[in-house]
Amino acid sequence: MTEDIVVIPGDGIGQEVIPAAVSVLETLDVDLSFTEAEAGDHVAAAGGDPLPAETHELAANADATLFGAAGESAADVILPLRAAVDSFVNVRPARTYPGIEAVRPETDIVFLRENTEGVYAGHEDRLSEDVSTLTRVVTESASRRLAEYACEYVTDRDLDGFTVAHKANVMRETDGRFRDAVFDVAEANGVETDEVLMDALAMHLALRPEEYDVVVTPNLAGDVLSDLAAGLVGGLGLLPSANLGPDRGLFEPVHGTAPDIAGQGIANPSATVLSAAMMLEHLGYDSAGQRVRDAVETVLEEGPRTPDLGGEASTEDVTAALVDALE
Amino acid sequence: MTEDIVVIPGDGIGQEVIPAAVSVLETLDVDLSFTEAEAGDHVAAAGGDPLPAETHELAANADATLFGAAGESAADVILPLRAAVDSFVNVRPARTYPGIEAVRPETDIVFLRENTEGVYAGHEDRLSEDVSTLTRVVTESASRRLAEYACEYVTDRDLDGFTVAHKANVMRETDGRFRDAVFDVAEANGVETDEVLMDALAMHLALRPEEYDVVVTPNLAGDVLSDLAAGLVGGLGLLPSANLGPDRGLFEPVHGTAPDIAGQGIANPSATVLSAAMMLEHLGYDSAGQRVRDAVETVLEEGPRTPDLGGEASTEDVTAALVDALE
Ligand SMILES: CC(C)[C@H](C(=O)O)[C@@H](O)C(=O)O
Ligand SMILES: CC(C)[C@H](C(=O)O)[C@@H](O)C(=O)O
């Protein structure tokens, strides 16, 4: 069966790392067909919608979508794309790799971030000259759906359980509901849980990241805490992510457009290639996914390396090395 | 003039560090009169309100209040106490001290956290079986008031300016308003500003904390980011904070009740003593405040040290050393 993959390079280094990932995917013995679609600042600058309806439509119907990055228009592109694939969870693993400098090399955490609501549901109003409001939404159903996934995630991987991070001491009704729903589903599935306040977790991650494995969070908490974890493992350059829905997924590096190096052909493609590995696994090609991961690890360890990792190689050099490692 | 100081030890190590700070304050040549008030879990356990009306009243009328910590009831105690002193800003400096182990010793940041609204304004509803909401509130007036303070803060200290952290790419109306109001006030005061998204800042703090000096944030962002900074400088044990209103203030260590060591007489009083120094400065006793800071630094460097800092001293030993250093 051919898998229909939509690729959306977007802006900046997205234009460099997406072709790199496609080259890597093309060396595999997996039947993938690629359709390229447009999105981002450059589309808006040309008078279009940063997320053209056609791109939205393609992502909503593809087997999977691989996304690069978008600039100023990021929120207008990535949030509707996540919705297009009906993604209820954003999976964000943060770990270090041998030989990569990191503030906290012990970090090895996967965030399972709620991906549809919280402040992102975003009903905002200007009530008066002085007062603006935002209605934060938490539903039982989205919380339970995330929790079901989290249970499956830890059970499939023989992990001990997960930690729920929240701020239910202040957001008693909304985060309280999130926490209770997640605990309830975990209990029904015989999965162990503990909990931590999101502010305390930010401190603990700096001090003792090794104490956390899988962290289940509301949307904004997951946004901030996973970026923090990225900092602890050395930056965004190596971090992949998966936005999963019931039928399809959207896979993207956690990094942005990197305007400072865009266009120079020196972007590190690792995060996007690792996102492609998550895509393969989501599509059921576990061993191909594992081979891609192994190739990334080998090249990270042995080189060549792009300048962000202290090397002098180009995106093309690294891509060629990845392809070599896979052949 | 006698300054009326209300002291609220609260729960756990609050009962140990507040008396320590009072002993230190009593050695100074400043006319302070202390009134002790009750709050916390132990009051609730005895059938009372965790924040008795009498305590609220005392704090609302004192020249300043020094608070220890509260346990499970923390939110029910500290949030109304902040409101009692009409506190619009929570000042949270995070820095390391010579000889103290830290993940990121370069960190030297002051957070100026909005202290009245955001999700803490907390209008929550259960709209249906499935849906709960929280109305996040941002006002022009609170944002401007915080910004006025931030401008004064950097101008008084001859600092270059400040950074505004927010999530206005998603919370466009509310955080957009916060950002615009703060920028507007800064511009009118000739204060330089830059901005960063709160998720990006969490990452930057792990990677390059030395790039930030003064960070102005909405309420929850300040909560999480200042705890993160606490982690980067070695934990909460040394971090003071000030909740300031137009006429009075509430001063508290950032740490909690530390149930694991409470009652053993080994709590580190430094964070509370540093909070007392902030209190002195707020009351206008700048040189007394500076002397207290110097004493804390001397004792941190030369010992004795409590177990959290690798020593074997008691709270009493450290307090005696502080008193010695001041005499
Ligand atoms: C661009 C922005 C809307 C997005 C988010 O907040 O989710 C980004 O920070 C991320 O985490 O992918
Ligand atoms: C106890 C809690 C309500 C409080 C807060 O969220 O403000 C605490 O985390 C703090 O930062 O002082």
TrEMBL record, chains A, B:
It is an enzyme of class 1 (oxidoreductase). GO terms for biological process: isocitrate metabolic process; tricarboxylic acid cycle. SMART domains: Iso_dh (SM01329). GO terms for molecular function: 3-isopropylmalate dehydrogenase activity; isocitrate dehydrogenase (NAD+) activity. InterPro entries: IsoPropMal-DH-like_dom. Keywords: Oxidoreductase. Residues 4-322 form the Isopropylmalate dehydrogenase-like domain. Pfam families: Iso_dh (PF00180). Its EC number is 1.1.1.85. The keyword Amino-acid biosynthesis does not apply. Belongs to the isocitrate and isopropylmalate dehydrogenases family. This is 3-isopropylmalate dehydrogenase. It comes from Halanaeroarchaeum sulfurireducens.
